[in-house]
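Worked example 2:
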Amino acid sequence: MKVRDLGIPGVFLVTPEPWHDPRGAFYEHFRLDTLRHETGRDFPVAQINYSVSRRNTLRGLHGVVDPPGQAKYVTCVRGALLDIVVDLRVGSPTFAQHVRTVLTAESGAAVLVDEGMGHGFRALTDDTCICYVLTTPYVPGTQFEINPLDPELALPWDLTEPPLISEKDATAPTLAQALALGFLPRWSPTPRHEG
């Protein structure tokens, strides 16, 4: 698999190299030694989640406070999605910047998202299924949300109609409100899970 830095420290695109034959295809989706070598980060797997969404569902922006922090390895296992990661680490040289990727089940590509990021996606097809491999388990009360439609962030969701969005995400604080509330993670040039 190929690992490419997406321009925000700690965010990488991982693209498999499939082996095709008359039966179909095979590829490695997650390989710790390769990720460690290419990113300089370890990725201890603590939990794996799936979500299934209708077309035009918008989920996010979601993050986890530090501690415990949480890195994610996100891939689309059915359908297609528009994935956006926002750097929410106060003091980061790329604070409030985003990267956008289209993930499809056919490509098998994944986005590795380091701790301190906000992550969200818009489902591009009905019955889109996303897999999240996580470095820490769910801890009640440690999650936070940022409004994905915050005009200050102006994220390129490519909406042509109002999205399906939870009340929690639609009423989440803006980035400016989150800064004022003081719950955003702080930037550290040394990742917690160094390889």
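The CA atoms of residues 62 and 133 lie 15 Å apart. The first strand starts at residue 2 and ends at 5.
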